[in-house]
Amino acid sequence: MPACRQGSRGLRHFSIPSLLALLFCGALAGPLAAQQEAGRQEGRDLYLEVFVNGRPMNLITRFTDLGDGTLSADAGELRNSGVLPDAAAARGEVRLDQIPGLGWRLIEPEQTIRLVVPDALLAPHVLNAAPDNVAAAEEGEAVPAVDHGYGLVLNYGVTLDGWQGADGATDRSLGASFDSRLFMPLGTLTHGFVLAEDDRDVLRYRRLDTYWRSSFPGRAVQVQLGDIATRGPGWSRPVRLGGLMVERNFGLRPDLVTLPLPGFEGSAALPSTVEVFADSIRTYAADVPAGPFRIDDLPLAGGSGMARVVVRDVTGRETQMDLPFLVSGELLRRGVADFALAAGRPRLGIGSDSDRYAEGTFGVATLRYGLTDALTLMAHAEGGEDLAMAGLGATFRIAHLGTASLSMARSRADWGEGHLLDFSTQIALGRAQVSGRLTRTGGRFTDIAALTADPELVEPDLAGFPRHLAQLAFSLPLADRGSAASLFLSDLRHADARTETSIGLSYNRQVLGDASLTLTALAQRGTQSDRMIGAQLHVPLGARHDAGLMVERRRAGWRQYATASGRSKDRVPGWSWRLQADRGEHLALQGSAAREGRLGRAELAARVSQGSRGLGLRLDGSVVAAGGGVFLSRRIDDAFAVVDVGAPGVEVSAENRPVGRTGRSGKILVPDLRAYEANSVSIDPAGLPLDAAVGVTRQSVRPAHHAGARVDFGVQASAREALVALVGPDGAALQVGGKVVLNGIDDELLVGFDGEVFALDLKDRNEILVSYPDGRACTARFDYADEPGTLTEIRGVPCL
């Protein structure tokens, strides 16, 4: 601040410059004084370690010294430090002396503050039971990077059947289904098709789905162009369109928690351990300090139930509490939105001779939003030429028993207007589970499925939206060991007033040790009327073999089945077999045997009935071109990786399960990886050549869905390495600890015992400089000849 000084002369001695300087200083005096006063009000910031009631919080919090021993802090930082500020000052800066009952002692030399907090002001110690990566994602941290690659995948399934009738006539058939994918970092192009014989035994090509899909994991959004299938609430009917769809896909972010998960609040008089048990299995455990605590997002299984919370303090005293909970996929976490927007032309008769896109463009929009953890709102709309339909709904939690959903919709089309009312629920009443749905329509309620149904494939009256649908399912575990009973009721009334009513009863229990007996009764009345009663017995024969018997009676008469099956200990490579005897009007015997390996799956089946015989062969697998090679593999339905080890015959494992050994190219394809999740891939260095050099033996890979990534372990199969033993002028081994510079490169090598140096990247002619801290130095020169597969030893190299 500029200083303004007054001279000793009187006014009569003031010169014009002196008078101007005095006026300038007077003008500045007011603003500068105000700045000094504001600075005193703002105070100085102190960054202090916080202790609450003598307990370190392991936090550094900013406090502001306002002078006269008064401190202030941000309300949010106070909560993080374990203090609940006054409700009236929930945000912004809070003066500590304005929080009733709070005491403190500032020890500035130690940069600490010791807070004395009454129980009423203690903020709960908050724990998040979700994995660390989940908590980080919700805090907005960077999304884990996805490992992309380029390649082509062709899944195939080929079926060859032959049949000989009792009269000696023969027949055969050949069919194949294919799923091809071209993937790259921008997305994946998928094309599915089948080859099937027509009436003239000529293979015909039939296209299934063709689409391009790009995924954006950061926003959990995917865009699909081509053939799409719409989605919506439970009462809506999906349709196939050829067009564009933008939708939320939470599968792109497996680290996010999108469902409301239960939590627990409690208080501990002493430092304690908290354990949470569900179905006698410990699902979570953590240490908590003395005082109130809160645990969020407990990892409990879906459905409703009762968990037990055990709090055990340092003295061994236990407190047990029951925690009723509900985890439902029908609800969204507060603030979470799910949506799907689609537009295109309806596709009719897929896979048939009449496969085509209908005239007219239609759109479908669905939105779900978690207003609270107990209430999820829904909106659904469909529109296009001669159609406008929209509906609203909500799903709400019923205490800890279950959920219920209520929706209403209206439609307008050329043939009239209509409305829909839908109610569904899933609740637990004690040990019983009850679910039901009631849907009623009035007028001429219409959707895209009804308006665009193919009359050659579906009767117009059956394509219309049902007038009435009522369903009820009830299941109850019984007191007997492993027994349960269930009931199912359904009543359907089509648009043409035809009705279909069915009722089903079942009872099952364990018998004869681990065997199970199931009794079933079913009655159906309406378009197709039938009645059935049956009994089924399933008997495990050890860990890998099973046998079963089934008897049923329908209107057509009695029918009996007897089955036996087995499988190997390992699934891949492994085998399985199945035999079945079926007696209805006639006796039929059939059997199958399958072998599944890294290259695919082969199944051979045979059937004999009334003098006729049939034999079939099924081959499933995939051909993959990716990661610089071409591979044969079993079907790839999710993600995969091409692992490049750089040496043949090295064992590779995924999630600690052996996959196989690398081929001659030093590569292997690893299928069955989880898309957008971290998959651990490792190699066994014992299989590497002795002269190979490897940096790491385990890596993590996150491939995209329906795509693959390349994992390079950077192994140098021949690192031109050798064990060099240096000797001095007297022929004795050099002293341990000398610094080694090889061919002018300092890799921080040292002379080891017996004067040995392990050297890499050797040349045909090499030079080693050795120096010691006491000033001694020497130089060694030697020749090197690479011997692949062995560790070269060069001994007796003089260092002079």
Automatic annotation (TrEMBL):
Name of this chain's protein: Outer membrane usher protein
GO biological process, one term: pilus assembly
Top-level division of the source organism's lineage: Bacteria
Coiled coil spans: none
A matching Pfam family: Usher
Alphabetized Gene3D superfamilies for the sequence: 2.60.40.3110, Outer membrane usher protein FimD, plug domain
GO cellular component: cell outer membrane
Compartments in which it is found: Cell outer membrane
Lineage summary: Bacteria, Pseudomonadati, Pseudomonadota, Alphaproteobacteria, Rhodobacterales
Keywords annotated in UniProt: Cell outer membrane, Fimbrium biogenesis, Membrane, Signal, Transmembrane, Transport
PANTHER family (alphabetical): OUTER MEMBRANE USHER PROTEIN, SLR0019 PROTEIN
Family: Belongs to the fimbrial export usher family.
Membrane topology: Multi-pass membrane protein
GO molecular function, one term: fimbrial usher porin activity
Originating species: Paracoccus aminovorans
Signal peptide: 1-29
